[in-house]
Amino acid sequence: MLLLVRRGLRASWGPTALLAVVALLAALVASAAPRAVTGIHARQVVHETSALTPLTRDVVTTRAGVAGAAGLTDAGPGAPAPRWAEYLDGLEALRAAQPEPLRSVLGAPDLGVTTGELGTEAGPASDVRHPTLLLRAAARVLDHVRVVEGRWPGATAVTPAFGGVGWGADGPVEVALSVPAAEELGWQVGQEHPVDGNPFVPAVVLVGTYEAVDPDGAYWAHQPAGERPLVVDDLNMGRSAQAAAYVDPSMLRVAAATGATTRAWFPLDVGASPRTGPDDVAPLLAQLRGLTGRTLEVVPGDPVTFQGTTEVVGTLERLAGQRAGVDAVVAVLASGPVGVTLAVLVLAARLVAERRRGTLALLSARGASPGRLRALTALEGLVVGLPAAAAGLAAGLLLVPAGPTAPVTAGQVAGALLAGLAPAAVLAAAGVPRGLRAGRADLAGPARGRARLVGEALVLAAAAASSSLLLQRGAVATDRDGVDPVLAVAPLLLALAVSLVAVRLAPLGARALEVLLARRRDLVPFLGAARATRDAAGGVVPLLALVLAVGVAGAGAVLQSTLAQGVTHQAWAAVGADLRVAGPVLGPDRVAALRDVEGVAEVATVADLGSRTLRVGVGGSSAGVLAVDAAALARVQDGVPGAVPAVADLAARAAAAAGDGGAEAAGGTGGDGSGPGGLAALTTAATGVRAGTPDVGLVAGRVVPTDVLATVDLLPGVASAGPHVVVDAAQAAGVLGDQPRPRLALVALDDDADRPAVVAAVRGLLPTAVVDDPAVQADALLGSPVAAGLRATSVAVVALAALGCVGVVGTTLLLGAPERGRLLALLRTLGMPRRAGRALAAWELGPWAAVALGVGAALAWALPVLVLAAVDLTALTGGDAPPPLRLDPLVLAAVAGGFLALVAGGAALAAATAPTSTDGALAERLRAGEER
């Protein structure tokens, strides 16, 4: 058998080499693709969690009281310190009791105790008008500081105070300040300073200064005002500074007599640790919910318990949603290459069988059983498939190396092994010829026809069931690991079902075309249409593959356009304008200066007037009031996604009220100053007050009649949750009696403005302001590992589908080459020109390509609709609502043009590898036809 295989490969190795190439590519993808997707998720974990601050990342509890102080009653010189070692051991035991992976990502616990704010005095050289202290003691602070001058504080003797109600310090309490804090307050080591707010602490004495070992370390995020003071400059109140003054832990009995807060925390290392991969996100999320959802006793009898909080829970929920969305998109995109690969394997196996037809028929005539013949063809597939699969597995490891968070799994090896066994399987199933005579493809027997009908019915039923299940279930984001099996198989089943329907309907159109072309005088179009219907090379497999390739490529383009549009829309909805400026109070002078910046077209301010009572009849509820420059806001948000058209109506009503104000005052009407229709306002849905609701009033010392023009969502760029009323700033000043002090401005730019230059100018004008640019936000989200990974996946899928299209077209034309050659040889003897061969090949392929393009376009729309209906892609766009489907005509036209180019390229490749039509070749083909 090996000798026959070797001779067969020597005689005709091209089709078998195609099987080897397909096995190599399939093994490479099966090996590398799962690790690549896992790597995308792993990088996204690092990307999301590294953006968190220690305050939002770590598991923190803040409880009233002093941890470890339960049962301490002795006092006097050398008063006992809280039993922090015992408390920390309890926290460590709590950490050790957690399951993996949570136990591995929780760091060593730590704690600190801080008193309430105490007033004090600044030194004569300081310009601080309002200095305050936070007396604090921390368990491991000495591991994070370096004493610069003096020493670390010690204990001060204490005695009973206020009739035994508490313990007071006999003298000044020793404290230590950071070097920046001491310089800001103008304190020197050895100086005493009085304090206000704690009757048990008469004064403090600075005995030492320190500097942080790691000023940027996460430790100081949990020790506010510890590394440097918190300084605020206020034009009206003057300069204020707050500093943390560290004391000996034994002095907490005195310092905390009027109140203290214990802050304990576990550092959390999720993304930066190689111990935690994307597969650990779901269990880690569940474990963190369990840890933070209950109150735990740290030390028996100690009232300071542990109830942790962390914003990592929300981040992990978003990561889980992102993973579900990415896996769904990848599952849809993978259906195309999988289907095209199977089609190429089947066609290549048929081509091998055709090339081996004579040998196999001769062996069968000499007594070889069908099983032996299938074993012979399967052996040929093993000889080429297994080495190719091994090479593909190795290439996949080189292309996407294995790592701690993306290891080589048994599934990847099994996938490569299946790729190596696939050529043997398809060659064995390609069929054993019963003789040398070939049959018409459209004259299948009754049994074969019934089997095909049953198979097609099963595919249609499965596609309908899976799609219906996904649509009924609705869009969900799942925390479950892995790909939803229904979602994974539904796109492929839907594509197969649509393709099978197209296969059944396409011959009807082809036969009609054949009847139409029969009236023409030229033969080639009619002959090509007849061969495409009656003797199509490859049967229905090429059409299935081409439909899958076009449909999935188009679906990938539609999904990418949808996600990109969703990201951009969300960025603009969050910022609300070309730029958003927030921070300092934006008075008229600053607003005028913003308008004078080169490139700025308009500036609209938004001021928060606080909460007011919104009355309807005799009842009422609290609602926040936002005062906007309505006319400017309408111009700024013209064309912004999510802009509220009713803002223009608000501006018109405010202008009308301003114009009627003087006449009404002269005539003695309009005493409220709000114009003929009352104070114009917009309400959010949370208020429950709709447009046109009668007897609405806003309470501002008195009830101001209010006319609700519209009920709207939140204004783009104005992040205000809960019930709100939006009014015009000019009307608010005249009617409500409030002078708006806006801290938010939405800025529109000229069309030709230099955005970076404008941003730099605004930041130079307002150094403390935060300037947001929607383009920058969108680029940041589109540059995330998930977005970049999806783009790379789409490119890879399109490339694989393109290679598959070339393989399908080329193999299909090569399969039909013998019959077409014999037909052309006969027609050449009757005078047909030589160039008719290319036209005949094009006609054989053209109708199916046209059907594939039309059906594939429909599939390119149906698959994204199915994905959006089944999976919540909100986490991928950063918004609060699923993105709407977007069909980009230019992208879809590029997909269609690329498909036509691939079909033409595959036809050219087949023509280049086909035998030349010399006179000797024509005679040989005619003799072969007679022998058959």
Automatic annotation (TrEMBL):
Coiled coil (UniProt feature): none
One Gene Ontology MF term: transmembrane transporter activity
CC terms in the record's Gene Ontology section: plasma membrane
rRNA-binding in keyword set: no
Protein location: Cell membrane
ABC3 transporter permease C-terminal domain mapped to chain residues: 340-401, 796-911
Main location as per UniProt: membrane
Signal peptide range: 1-32
Bilayer-spanning residue ranges: 328-352, 373-400, 412-432, 453-472, 492-518, 539-559, 795-818, 839-870, 890-912
Keyword terms, alphabetized: Cell membrane, Membrane, Signal, Transmembrane, Transmembrane helix
Membrane topology listed for this record: Multi-pass membrane protein
Domain of life: Bacteria
Similarity comment: family membership: Belongs to the ABC-4 integral membrane protein family.
The protein, known as: ABC3 transporter permease C-terminal domain-containing protein
Organism: Xylanimonas oleitrophica
